[in-house]
Queue: 2 jobs
Job 1
Amino acid sequence: MEININEAVISLVVGDITKEKTDVIVNAANSGLRGGGGVDGAIHRAAGPSIMAECRQIGYCPAGQAVVTTAGNLQAKYVIHTVGPVYRGGTKGEDRLLESAYRESLEQAVRKKAASISFPAISAGVYGYPLREAARIALKTTIDFVKENQRIELVRFVLFSRDVYDAFEEELKKLV
Ligand code: AR6
């Protein structure tokens, strides 16, 4: 599914984010930037060791923030590593932190003069965020951002399985 907001395209696809050719791909990292499983493991495996060396230099990223590295062997120019919240019942400010993870990633992309960016479903795996809510926050934050920021031309949500795609599609239909 694809929608237009002003000049920008927001698109949903099923796929593997490590194969994306957008200027930026976003990693769902942990605060220690140490790598891990899920999309984080996949990105580090595909990118090679250089981005882990950059992550070690940076050292830390709190939940809701984002840091930038180069992209090693990936086709993207940059990897933006953001840290979503661990879901602990929804009463610990998880929604604001997830919104912030998307917004900070988009802001870092604009700072790097990127025109296109791919996101995975941040926090919706190991970190346990309920899928529908995670999808709604991801899409609402992105739509609000591209309304205000002309530079970003394409935001792709690269969703690893059909159920995640379906949740994003249903939430996107509600928002437009
Ligand atoms: N491309 C796109 N999406 C993917 C890929 C891929 N190659 N691989 C997995 N996903 P998760 P989180 C999906 O657990 O919940 C790591 O260990 C996956 O199916 O990767 O933010 C970090 O180091 C799910 O829909 O991220 C952290 O410790 C989504 O990506 C922790 O997990 C996010 O799942 C972060 O947990």
Job 2
Amino acid sequence: MAAPQFDAVVVGAGFGGMGAAIQLKELGLNNIAILEREDDLGGTWHVNRYPGLAVDIASVTYSYSFEPNPYWSRLFAPGRELKRYAEHVADKYDLRRHMRFGKVVEGARWDEESGFWVVNVAGEGSISARYLLTATGFLSQPHSPDIPGIDTFAGKIIHTTAWDDSYDLTDRKAAIIGTGATAVQLIPEVAKKVSALTVYQRTPIWVVPKVDTPIPGPVQKLFARVPTAQKAARLVNTGLLETMMVSAVLHYKQAKALNSGAAVLAAAHLRAQVRDPETRRKLTPHYSFGCKRPTFSNEYYPTFNKKHVHLETNSITRIEADGIVTADGHKTEIDTLILATGFNLWDVNFPAIEIIGREGRNLGKWWRDNRFQAYEGLAVPQFPNFLTLSSPYSYSGLSYFTTIETQMKHMKRLFGEMRSRKSEFFEVTENANADFLDRMTEKLGDSVFYAGSCEGSRSYYFNQHGEAAILRPTSTINAYREAGSFPLEDYVYA
Ligand code: NAP
């Protein structure tokens, strides 16, 4: 039988796709193509360049554990350092020669006859591969609001994922729509430059203090010379995040006090930082901590004390050529409109491209008709030789690197088993997938998503059916352990 063009096609050259490619190469699969729609690597850290961009998970944890970077300049590194780190990893693990940029994958189809995936690349036709891995991220399809009149706005419109570095904000009259984690980082930076800033908030966000500090040269040198010191720092920080995430959010029923403690801390932070009681009231969330992704900042709240910054909570009725009109009839004149309106996860991103498996099963349609699901957050029945890395129930813990490394471990066990069986085919069984979904569904019952009060949070954790189907409701340790010990018979091999 003819061989496919590639052993594997990986879609996405962000940290997820790079992790998968590193694992494939370690397994001896070197004929791989990493297809990336953007013009460079780094995924979210290539696309996002807005002022204030930084990690909000401490950098010792937000990085590959097998490739620590001793030279982070701060506890929470700025975005450009993440981009440089991605470039370093690509060079060190010899990934660049596999990467092809500006390649928009339109879809992929399992070809039963050849036993290959046929991957369609816009403007280039199709390529074939034995294995297909999609690492297209969760937050990769920007959402621009469909507000009446937005097309008639005569000033400058910038979405945070398409930042225009050449546009000078000095003395502009700006509006920012949105108060998610992106806006929390961006608002203080924009406020420093513009003459007037109106922030349009629909739902307030929980913000806790950020314990950030530069990492002095001697500490960087220590991390470089004694890697165990950085490992220890990673362990402590990851443990803290795990407590916050798993206990306060996922084990909400058992650890309500911890969740309330986090909310009390955020409320005290707000009280200490915002002078005006009315502004404080508007910035106070009315849903349980963790329903929506909370964030860390010391600069967000004080920005609202500035005279030229206004928090608008009346809903937007329409946008005109020179301003925004709210439901109370008031018009705010602006020349710059910044959309910090996030991403579309559930309509266009699961999956990000059309994937057709055996017997014509369309993954997007199947997920919508039968609930969002993926065995261990990465395999789906009737989709042989396919791993979907940005999947329902795959995101484990607060640092995405935990998920990436868990998935790499799963790949190692799965491909190792295929090798020992001299097989080149795997497919997860319907039963294993159904059992996994049942287990996740049951565990979610303890989480803040179902046991807390999340009404009105408008959280992207929930899909169109009201299911919180992104986060894996187990500890990260459990996820990691299962990646190395899942029953091998959960897959069929041929
Ligand atoms: P987001 O959390 O989805 O926030 C989007 C914001 O836009 C929300 O406040 C939303 O209001 C508002 N919005 C959307 N459509 C609107 C409309 N038509 N009218 C008025 N308001 C509208 O997106 P994000 O801030 O980009 O953050 C997404 C995720 O990216 C974060 O949760 C985080 O996981 C990640 N992130 C991470 C970092 C980091 O440092 N690692 C930094 C930034 C972002 P509603 O809440 O009412 O829907």
